[in-house]
Amino acid sequence: xNLASTIRKxxxxxxxxxxxxxxxxxxxxxxxxxxxxIFWLMFFFQRDIDGTYRIPLKYTHIADNEIFDSPxxxxxxxxxxxxxxxxxxxxxxxxxxxxxxxxEYKQDGIVTLQGNQYIQxxxxxxxxxxxxxxxxPANISLVTSKLQNKKLSVVFDGEITTSRANLVADTATxxxxxxxxxGAQRDLDELTAAITEYTVFDRIKATSQLxxxxxxVTGVKFVPxxxxxxxxxxxxxxxxxxxxxxxxxxxxxxxxxxxxxxxxISFSVxxxxxxxxxxxxxxxxxxxxxxxxxENGRVELELTKSPxxxxxxxxxxxxxxxxxxxx
Length: 327
Hints:
The protein contains seven helices and 25 strands. Helices cover about 25% and strands about 45% of the residues. By secondary structure, it is of the alpha+beta class. It folds into three domains: about 45-145, RNA Polymerase Alpha Subunit, Chain A, domain 2; about 145-230, RNA Polymerase Alpha Subunit, Chain A, domain 2, CATH 2.170.120; about 235-325, Beta Complex (RNA Polymerase Alpha Subunit, Chain A, domain 2). The longest helix is centred in the first third of the chain and has 24 residues, at about 25-45. Strands 11, 19, 21, 22 and 24 form a five-stranded mixed β-sheet that branches. Strands 4-1-3-6 form a four-stranded mixed β-sheet. α2 (about 25-45) packs across α3.
């Protein structure tokens, strides 16, 4: 039975069912459900209730050359009470961070956040009629120590791959190229560079500038802790040319023949440089002194001259046979 015949069969039954359905009773029931919900909300908003909330802490205005002597709590747990309507407002805003302005407290001579200053800070986040019943931690130490500093070059740790027909045209660079590391002298002495977090940039299609974080080091603070990596990408194409195999430092009374006598050079080159490449830009010149004693009668090929603008160079064949002849 196909779908069309099934629909034709059930359509009259459904029409009959819904035409006889007691819609009036359903709407009456839903009305009283809605009315009950409204009365429940009114009761909830007027009722005094208690609650516990976890609020994230955000520390601002911290000098780059200072580090806290004690670990800072990331969250503040509070116990509060108040009308349901006020608690509902607090519940909606509990994910907002509570800012701790470190510089401002230090200017006032406060090195430990506790007592009235602490309560006032927490109270700034509470609706007017909500009462604070308790909080944890009981205090926050803002004591810091001065740090030594050291300039470090940024070094990339990861992988960069490009989409088909594209290649990285040059070395990736960083903006800025250096960062400042702050820490104890013994920790700084062990650092020779600022290493990025291991990152994979996959199938990049064009020149890109992307954000990348500096890998954290225990006891050391990097400023900035993230940099931009500039990856130059160009479109490349494949090309193959054929060049002769020659020999240098050959004795005057000897000649050499290679089998085959020419080799194919395959490489990748940008579209801009494609027409500028000629066979004369390449050379395979073997050194007689390095291969004349090869017992197997073969020698490996390598380029002795090539343009700097090409990449992914391949030689075919990779080795050839040779035969010496007396002149």
